[in-house]
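Treating backbone geometry as a discrete language has practical consequences that deserve illustration. Part of our work consisted of pairing the sequence of a single chain with a tokenised description of its backbone. We regard such an encoding as a compact summary of how the chain folds. The amino acid sequence and the backbone structure tokens for this protein are reproduced below.
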Amino acid sequence: MDSDPPFHKAYKSFFNNASTTTTTTNDNYNKESIDQDVMKVIVEECELPLIDMRRLELGDSEREECKSEIARASQEWGFFQVLNHGVSSELLQKMKSEQEKVFKQSFDKKSQEQKYFNFSAGTYRWGSPMATTLRQLSWSEAFHIPLNKVSPSSTAGLDNLSSTMEQFAATVSSLALKLAEILAEKLGHKPTFFHENCKPSTCYLRMNRYPPCPIPSEVFGLMPHTDSDFLTILHQDQVGGLQLVKDDRWIAVKPNPEALIINIGDLFQAWSNNVYKSVQHRVVTNLQVERFSTAYFFCPSYETMIESCCEPSVYRKFSFGEYRHQVQEDVKQMGSKIGLPRFLV
């Protein structure tokens, strides 16, 4: 019996080729492959900068220090964690419970998301359609949902899914706007841009599931990438697997049950003229345990123009729609995203 999603069936040739390569290549090549795998598996675990958002409600000095820590983490790490973020533990648990229910539905139902979940076509995604080798395969499935298209599910047992997503997104969107405004302020710019251009209706929610993988040293849960938004807010379970690049090496993020993870996206790096960093991150697979996470992508409308907020500008002016289109074209033609380097002046 195949996995759900049917990775083995869909990517059978990849597995066959990997098996053939292992048995026919010479010892030097095998040693190189093993070394690469060890480098990928043995990664130092660390805690991201941890920021208590409650300090924003205290005195002036405490509030300004908290804002400075947010900006500093965005410059030096591109990632940080927040506590007392305004999203209740009850809501986070409810969101996880609802997404577990939807992922437990059959592959046939998930593949017909319009019929069974009232999700728009293309919402359900799994694997990597453009992959040509195991190294390019993402061992995961997801529902990537535009928040302006959330509607009640027609599937029994999922009655609370849409209302939970709406409640989660509404709460997290307030946090995203607050963080974006702080980051704009620390650059010396008025924060009105985000209030005017990043509406809840232009943002996305992505529910992720990473099934157990029989060859975790060979396949990523999610390929190395950067996010094509202003910032991302992530709630993950305690399984772990998220890794990011810091000082030119991969580090593993230690899960914190009380915190939400924030990471800077490409648009903020361009808008800040490279002050804030959108860094590469990935998810590694687990042999025995499935992993769940929910990500909120803080995005503008497709028509919104992105231009650096100071001169001389590193990037040319572009619309979010143009950026998304270029990313999709690069993935289609080259197998991977190129991103911001395409838009250098």
Remarks:
- The CA atoms of residues 215 and 338 lie 27 Å apart.
- The first strand starts at residue 45 and ends at 46.
- The chain has a mean pLDDT of 89.
- DSSP finds eleven helices and 15 strands in the chain.
